[in-house]
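Possible regression after last week's pipeline update?

I re-ran a chain I had predicted before the update to compare outputs. Posting the input and the new output here so someone can diff against the archived version. Not blocking, just want to make sure nothing changed silently.
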Amino acid sequence: MNKYIVEVNGMKCGMCEAHVNDAVRKAFKVKKVNSSKDKCQTEIIAENDISLDDIKNVIQAEGYKVGEIKKEEAVKTFLGWK
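New output (post-update):
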């Protein structure tokens, strides 16, 4: 599993978070996606590799600015994905 941590600027409310989550779900096959306006980030868990440029393009197409994207190994724990 892959975990992508995406810096997303421009989210101002819960609807913005949902908007980003929906765009990611529509564009990619993901296990989990969670956006936080307070952290200015979106976390994506996916089985397959996703191009960092594709992630950036999908989120920017929705009107948000994308900064750094980190990719790391996702680990399933008793409490969820880490």
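Follow-up from reviewer: compared with the archived run. Residues 14-27 form the longest helix (14 residues). Marking as no regression found.
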